[in-house]
Design goal:
Mean pLDDT: 96
Shape: globular
Number of helices: 14
Distance between the termini: 32 Å
Length: 453
């Protein structure tokens, strides 16, 4: 790998030493991790103190939708800091008002009220609180293949194994199977069968749980960390109809899929469905300053016209975060980022990934849209056995560890979860950068192929 900048190994070692002495990292066994010390980042790349540069196919944690250090967003944060660095949420502040207006202009339907949070998990917490108070009901249905955040309610709504240690707080949460044809829980063989059977399963679950007690159904419009499974045609419309029939609030979680990631402002736009509540974060300001929120329908907002909403956050709508959101949304408009994400997905990423699948037996399926893709890696294409077991760790995860190491060795930072690698670069990645990343994936998949049978 060619050094990007003059190495500064001494500073890098000091940064690493302080991290290891004092930083407690999330989702990690503290003594088993070796965090890379990052010296800087720009656009689609970041680099370490040894001068090694990486093309970021993870967008941080799928949030740098306009890349690192966009000068217009950095300037907006600096200008806001000089003018009004912070202010309490009970006041009307220009950056906050303008961010809410710009977001509301882009959300579907009548989702015109914006409750700001510090991130996606808090957005989910407050969306569920809104739904329960609006309906007077308690139960919430969520999918097994899902991730909604790590705070108390959000982690219990989550389906993946990170929930298990916190299941003591799951009262009122009921899980169901959402559609996923490649690993269909309904023995379906076509998208149409998968859709119909998934909707029947959901309606049966509602019947057995008692529809009069169900406040909300929460779904990631396109599940992110769980595998980027785009829903089959008609599924989300069917869920919308079921919710309307039983008076259930539909919450779409767009924390990861929103703000250009799917080649549209929101993934809901691709399916023509308007939820009652929509959560967002990450791409709203490319993660430059923590920000999330809930977009609220007129009907639910009206519930709290004369009745106080019992929730709030000290930093709700923080001026620096909102200024970053205003600048990010304006940049996305001015530079055509949303359309570019759709174009790069259709003309470079999808055909390129399908070519890789044709060459590599380790690739079981390619799925996604925009700049939101996943490769399902398998030991055997016929049996579809995952390349590593579900929730594998240590030696059991060795094939994926080897694949990831091959990516990094050649200058690509991947997003890996279980037996999948996700291709989720910035929405404004160039065609040349995308092809560069695909070339590295091609070589790394040869390592994964060694574990196939």
């Amino acid at each position: 790998m060619t050094p990007h900048v003059d190495p500064d190994s001494r500073t890098g070692a000091a940064v690493k030493a302080a991290d290891r002495a004092h930083v407690f990292h999330s989702w990690s066994a503290q003594g088993l991790i070796d965090p890379l010390a990052v010296a800087g980042a720009e656009g689609s790349y970041f680099w370490d103190y040894d001068g090694n540069r990486y093309l970021d196919f993870s967008s941080g944690l799928v949030f740098t939708n306009i890349g690192y250090q966009h000068p217009k967003v950095v300037a907006a944060i600096q200008e806001q800091a000089g003018r009004l660095a912070t202010f309490a949420p009970a006041f009307a502040v220009e950056a906050r008002s303008e961010a809410a207006r710009l977001i509301a202009e882009r959300t579907p339907g009548d989702l015109d009220k914006i409750f700001f949070t510090n991130g996606g998990a808090e957005a989910v917490e407050n969306a569920i609180r809104l739904a329960r108070l609006h309906t007077g009901r308690h139960k919430v249905l969520s999918a097994y293949r899902s991730y909604h955040g790590a705070t108390a309610q959000a982690i219990n709504l989550t389906g993946d194994p990170r929930r298990w240690a916190s299941d003591t707080g799951s009262a009122g949460v009921v899980r169901f199977w959402a559609p996923f044809l490649y690993r269909s829980p309904f023995y379906a063989t076509t998208e149409a069968e998968e859709c119909a059977r998934a909707l029947t399963h959901l309606e049966d679950t509602i019947a057995f749980e008692g529809p009069a007690g169900i406040a909300a159904i929460i779904l990631e419009t396109v599940p992110g960390t769980a595998g980027i499974m785009t829903p089959p045609p008609g599924y989300l419309a069917g869920v919308r109809e079921i919710c309307d029939r039983y008076g259930i609030v539909l919450v779409l979680d767009e924390v990861m899929s929103g703000f250009g990631r799917t080649g549209s402002w929101f993934a809901a736009d691709l399916y023509g469905v308007t939820p009652d509540l929509m959560t967002f974060a990450k791409g709203v300001n490319s993660g430059y300053v923590p920000l999330g929120g809930v977009a609220i329908s007129a009907e639910i907002a009206a519930t709290f016209d004369k009745r106080p909403f019992p929730g709030g956050l000290t930093y709700s709508g923080h001026p620096l975060a909102c200024a970053a959101a205003v600048a990010t949304i304006n940049v996305m408009e001015e530079e055509g980022v949303v359309g570019h994400a759709a174009h790069i997905g259709a003309t470079v990423l999808e055909p390129g990934l399908r070519e890789l699948a044709a060459r590599h037996p380790a690739v079981g399926e390619v799925r996604g849209t925009g700049v939101f893709w996943a490769l399902e890696l398998v030991r055997n294409r016929e049996t579809r056995e995952p390349l590593v077991p579900y929730n594998a760790a240590g030696a059991d995860a060795a094939p994926m560890t080897a694949f990831g190491a091959a990516c990094k060795k050649n200058g690509l930072w991947p997003f890996i979860n279980m037996n999948r690698t996700h291709v989720v670069p910035p929405c404004n990645i160039t065609e040349g950068e995308a092809k560069e990343g695909l070339a590295v994936l091609d070589e790394a998949l040869s390592v994964a192929d060694e574990y196939t049978v």
